[in-house]
């Protein structure tokens, strides 16, 4: 069974508590459960990982490469806008990478409008809440 790696970035462990106007009240565990259920339906395994450490995120991206993951989904949170370290780690991957955001980053603060990942990812899905993750999984599968 093909493995899709879902990478959750900084502060995502606080989903359900953090800024419900932007992110709703869904928890990270609920997001992961929805992804795993859809993955099962689509015939893939979804393995989720969350960290608040930028270095650990880079290490997990390297592991996805070593493990021959079929695709990578990433919601890096604030790192999206400035982490060239994570960008360079993602650039190592030779599989589809889909950038995901629950909120519409283009309708928020100016600093959130730019993604340093945009040039290297297959695509970006934002603004649909939890549905962004499910759309991202479907997009990654269609790009494989």
UniProtKB/TrEMBL annotation:
Protein's UniProt keywords contain Lyase: yes
Active site, UniProt feature: 23, 101
Keyword Nucleotide-binding: no
Annotated substrate binding sites: 75, 81, 88, 102-103, 112
One function term, GO molecular function aspect: 3-dehydroquinate dehydratase activity
Pathway entry: Metabolic intermediate biosynthesis; chorismate biosynthesis; chorismate from D-erythrose 4-phosphate and phosphoenolpyruvate: step 3/7
EC number: 4.2.1.10
Entry-linked InterPro entries: DHquinase_II, DHquinase_II_sf
CDD domains: DHQase_II
Keyword list, A-Z: Amino-acid biosynthesis, Aromatic amino acid biosynthesis, Lyase
GO process terms (BP): amino acid biosynthetic process; aromatic amino acid family biosynthetic process; chorismate biosynthetic process; quinate catabolic process
Site (Transition state stabilizer): 18
Reactions accelerated catalytically: 3-dehydroquinate = 3-dehydroshikimate + H2O
Function: Catalyzes a trans-dehydration via an enolate intermediate.
NCBIfam families, sorted: aroQ, PRK05395.1-2, PRK05395.1-4
HAMAP family registered for this protein in UniProt: AroQ
Subunit structure and binding partners: Homododecamer.
Family to which the UniProt record says this protein belongs: Belongs to the type-II 3-dehydroquinase family.
Protein name (database record): 3-dehydroquinate dehydratase
Annotated organism of origin: Caballeronia arationis
